[in-house]
């Protein structure tokens, strides 16, 4: 089981990566479809920029966690032939 590590800088109400991506897709669909007024388009753009920044931070956090796991778990592979030398 994978334990999620909470980031103290991220509010509890912040969306997951998947939710942020779904919200971004919906914003793009509405903006491309011409469904929004100019004011609503600006608000949607602002919200989209926030979601992108949040998603980038989530990805950076995940990459850091992978680096930590690799440092603790992965070791150089020694083949049996190298051990016989």
Uncertain residue ranges: 1-6
Count of alpha/pi helices? 3
Which class of secondary structure composition applies to the elements? Answer: mainly alpha
Distance linking N and C termini: 40 Å
Instruction: Briefly note the CATH topology name of one domain.
Output: Helix Hairpins
* CATH class identity of one domain: Mainly Alpha
Order of helices and strands: HHH
Question: From the alpha-carbon coordinates, what is the Rg to the nearest angstrom?
Answer: 21 Å
- Basic shape: elongated
Mean pLDDT over all positions = 82
Largest sheet: none
* Number of beta strands: 0
CATH architecture of one domain: Orthogonal Bundle
The proportion of strand residues reads under 5%
Summarize the structure.
The chain is mainly alpha-helical.
Structure write-up:
By secondary structure, the chain is mainly α. The protein has a domain at 17-73: Helix Hairpins. The protein has three helices and no strands. The chain has helices at 17-32, 38-73, 80-83. Helix 1 (17-32) packs antiparallel against helix 2 (38-73). The longest helix has 36 residues, at 38-73. Mean pLDDT is 82; it is low at 1-6.
Sum up the structure in keywords.
mainly alpha, Helix Hairpins, elongated
Write the layout of secondary structure elements.
Blueprint: H1 17-32, H2 38-73, H3 80-83
Helix pairs in contact: 1-2
